[in-house]
Write a structure and sequence with these properties.
Blueprint lengths: L1 E7 L8 E7 L6 E10 L2 H7 L16 E8 L11 E4 L2 E3 L5 H4 L11 E2 L19 E5 L4 E2 L6 H4 L5 H11 L7 E5 L3 H12 L3 E6 L5 H7 L3 E4 L3 H6 L4 E6 L8 H4 L2 E9 L11 H5 L4 E4 L5 H14 L5 E5 L3 H9 L6 E5 L3 H7 L1
Parallel strand pairs: 10-11, 10-13, 11-12, 13-14, 14-15, 16-17
Antiparallel strand pairs: 1-2, 3-4, 3-8, 3-17, 4-5, 5-9, 6-7
Length: 354
């Protein structure tokens, strides 16, 4: 077994605190990764506060993991000791269903095994995530990280990056496309960077004039105040694709009316109350409202390679693990530009104090 230091939530109402546990020794296809950086996703907060489903505590969150391989199982062929490696939102799937065979493991018909708060398919133990100093993962769900990328800033690509890359790719965004991005946070700022790199004309929707300068810096060609009727009207019926990254409840109908005929609006945020959709916003223009969930392993590797080629990483604020509870409160207030990333060296101070 591999002794592992981490920060965990022991209940839905408890702050994260130091927690020690044992990782498994590597199976024959496993790699052991020393975690160097781990991004902080809004999903982490939802999960440890038990806001989505009944969780099994303790929970070690974290699924934006970048590190270095320290050991490999005897049958591993894709990685060797010393390689840079990443782990995203999944660590396994059935690998046999139609979706898995199509490299869409996130839609595994038997349920993907997620990086934390999930059940290991082999021994039934709870999976634990990246707010820790080591992780053990099957090589099939481990990703290569280019040394061209700043490692800390690359960590959020494992969730925020693929969550926005996948729908842009699936709906064939590219040169000649007019794309709208709703929300300028961890997901939205990655959507801007990626849509711009795809060659699209990109418009940022926001309710805050103060975000205009940042949106333009991140790749927006124009910024539209969504609470300004005149600005919205000027763009009505002109978008090929709109990516909505907002997780708070908000009205979707005004954005649907911004689409061209046969345009698509895709949701990647997950509000906690169902939206109210007006039939006319879909019918008049044959508009589509869709959703998208992260991406498969092959597409995630494609995204990482694309980002390395184009120099795309997340805008981050690096923190020590001891400040994670404060970071959660700041995240709730959108007080971060645009993703917290934990420097896992900070775990060593807890180890020395123990």
């Amino acid at each position: 077994m591999i002794p592992t230091l981490s920060y965990a939530a022991t209940s839905a109402s408890a702050p994260l605190k130091p927690y020690s546990f044992d990782r498994r020794d590597p199976r024959e296809k496993d790699v052991v990764i020393e975690i160097l950086y781990c991004g902080v996703c809004h999903s982490d907060l939802h999960t440890v506060r038990d806001e989505w489903s009944k969780g099994t505590f303790p929970i070690v969150p974290g699924h934006e993991i970048v590190g270095r391989v320290t050991r490999v199982g005897k049958s591993v062929t894709k990685f060797k000791e010393g390689d840079l490696a990443g782990v995203g939102c999944m660590v396994d799937s059935c690998r046999e269903c139609a979706n898995c065979k199509d490299d869409l493991e996130q839609f595994c018909l038997k349920g993907a095994t997620f990086t934390y708060a999930s059940k290991d398919r082999h021994d039934g133990t709870a999976t634990q995530g990246g707010y820790s100093n080591h992780i053990v993962v099957d090589e099939a769900f481990t990703l290569h990280i280019s040394d061209k990328l700043d490692l800390a800033s690359a960590a959020p690509l494992l969730c925020a990056g693929i969550t926005t890359y996948s729908p842009l790719k699936h709906w064939k965004v590219g040169k000649g496309s007019k794309v709208g991005v709703v929300g300028l946070g961890g997901l939205g700022h990655m959507a801007l960077k990626l849509a711009h790199a795809f060659g699209a004309t990109v418009v940022q929707f926001t309710t805050s004039p103060s975000k205009r300068e940042d949106a333009l810096r991140l790749g927006a060609d124009e910024v539209v105040l969504s609470n300004d009727a005149a600005q919205m009207k000027a763009h009505a019926g002109s978008f090929d694709f709109i990516l909505d990254t907002v997780s708070a409840p908000h009205d979707l109908n005004g954005y649907l009316r911004m689409l061209k005929r046969d345009g698509t609006m895709t949701l990647v945020g997950l509000p906690d109350t169902p939206p109210k959709i007006e039939g006319g916003a879909l019918i008049f223009g044959r508009h589509s409202l869709a959703g998208s969930l992260i991406g498969g392993i092959a597409e995630t590797q494609e995204m990482l390679d694309f980002c390395a080629e184009h120099g795309i990483v997340s805008d981050i604020e690096k923190i020590d693990i001891q400040n994670i509870n404060e970071a959660y409160e700041r995240m709730l207030k959108s007080d971060v530009k645009y993703r917290f990333v934990i420097d896992m060296k900070s775990l060593k101070s807890d180890a020395k104090a123990a």
